[in-house]
Protein 1
Amino acid sequence: MLRQPDFEAVRPVEHPLHHRGRRPVTPGLAEEARRRFGALLATRYSCTEAGIGLGTAFDDPEEDAIESVGRPHASVELSVRDADDRPS
């Protein structure tokens, strides 16, 4: 949507909040979306079946939503493991 040549002429009404999910977003695209939509950004990382996982909140520091996938949801236990399933 942001790459459409006429985006500025027909852009949607500004929304105060924007939720980003589905696949990773580059920091550059996140910054551009925030600027051009005039919106706060929250990022999520989870599987469709669970609906919860990692995420940022709309009131987190701007760089958290742009540079990370956030923190685990309160009901999620998270660990980083190597290829042999050992904690890293």
Protein 2
Amino acid sequence: MVKPKIYADFHNADSEGRLRLNCVGTVEDLARQQVELREGLLLTLYSDDLDAQGQLDELLVDGCVSFSEEEHCWVASIDWAAIHHVSDDEGAPATAQKGDDKRFENELRHL
């Protein structure tokens, strides 16, 4: 079974190192793909990044969803050491989804 690929802000982690799944890009991806978060759901999470030539080369990591009572939001537990670029997967080119360029531009404005 293919895990849904959902945007996540890798800078939006809680004190336990779990990614909060509450940013605009995450909510948009969940709605567009009609994914309902639930305990134990496995996702592939991505965040925008650039390669050395300035081309889109997303960061990817698998995560497991849970609800954080402390944070009052859905979070995903990830292995931070497993984060990798799309281009690391057998030299495959980065895959962009509709809206990625605009979301990436918005993220850069906030840095």
